[in-house]
Amino acid sequence: MGAEEVMPLTPENNTPPSMSYPAVTDFLRSGLFRWAGDANSFVGDAYIELVCSPNNPDGAIRDAVLSSGAGKAVHDLAYYWPQYTPITRRADHDIMLFTVSKSTGHAGTRIGWALVKDREVARRMTKFVELNTIGVSKDSQLRAAKVLSAVSDGYVDGDASRHRLFDFGRRKMVERWRMLREAAAASGIFSLPAETSGRCNFANETAANNPAFAWLRCDREDVEDCAGFLRGHKILTRSGNQFGADPRYVRVSAVGKECDNETNEAVFDETDDEEDAAEAAPRRNDHEVHMSTGAAGSEEE
Questions:
Q1: How far is Cα 181 from Cα 196, in angstroms, rounded to an integer?
Q2: Of 41, 80, 124, 288, which alpha carbon lies 20 to 30 A from 260's?
Q3: Which burial class, exposed, middle or buried, applies to 93 when counting CB atoms under 10 A from its CB (0-12, 13-18, 19+)?
């Protein structure tokens, strides 16, 4: 059985899959499945197709590309929350994965959940968790339930005076993406995917897509390793080659805490040499961008 990723890994596309899928698949060394790469080029009926939507690292909305009675599609919806993307349609897939790490920022709680239509598949998934971790921490379950309950209570009866997590999160993401786009445009050497928007059924308004991560490209001809170049400017990112993509691309995190943003402030100015870059990095000006390199509470995934 082939474990499939929906994103093509062609040089022209440059929107690779989540870096953990092939690594975990290869690590398990299962005799039941293997990593088979691009779902668009897969031939066969038996498969597991992994659909990460919004995609990590570029935030694009993805759909399953394969269709077979013998195949299964697993939709990873870790980032399908209104602070990151417009909720344009009801999620109604056979297997859907979620996590409090990205929905509320409580990564340290280490709790995720799945909505599964097939009772037998759900039973097998539960058994796997039982064998793999001897169950799930009750403390973590109680904390996650309390957090999600508090978030839900903020939207009861449409009372706008309540504290609303998703509204707060969306304002933060809009501001961070505004700063990043302005900085990238002013630099003259960095480019980002075009901004997209859609009608958000949750917020009942048109909203822009503000992904948890930015898929940033360095367009300077003499820079082949964008992550290394930015590291020299005291900006930590994940290289595109960690996602099987061109190293001129990097993933920049936009979901850190404010203190992280202050620590990792940087200037996306084009400089002639490393000495100029070191002098420019701490300076505040119109090109400054405050971006984090880690998810709140835990290392980003």
A1: 13
A2: 80
A3: middle
d(CA 169, CA 152): 14
The closest of 60, 38, 32 to 50, measured between CA atoms, is: 38
How many C-beta atoms lie closer than 10 Å to residue 194's C-beta? 6
Measuring CA to CA, how many Å separate 90 from each of 87, 96, 143, 145? 8, 12, 27, 22
247 within 8 A of 240, measured Cβ to Cβ: yes
Q: How far apart are CA 108 and CA 124, in angstroms?
A: 26
The per-residue pLDDT for range 246-290, each reduced to its tens digit, is 999 999 999 977 655 554 444 454 433 443 433 333 333 333 333
Backbone angles phi and psi of 5, in degrees to 5: -110, 140
> In sequence order, what are the beta bridge partners of 218?
190
Cα separations in angstroms, 299 against 40, 110, 178, 181, 227: 31, 12, 24, 24, 18
- Structural domains for the chain: 2-118 (3.40.640.10), 165-289 (3.90.1150.10)
**Strands 47-52 vs 2-5: parallel, antiparallel or unpaired:** parallel
Sign of dihedral through CA atoms 84, 88, 90, 96? negative
DSSP, res 195:
P
Helix (H, G, I), strand (E, B) or coil at 261: helix
Q: Hey, how many other C-beta atoms are within 10 angstroms of the C-beta on 165?
A: 20
Q: Is 202 exposed, middle or buried (0-12, 13-18, 19+ CB in 10 A)?
A: middle
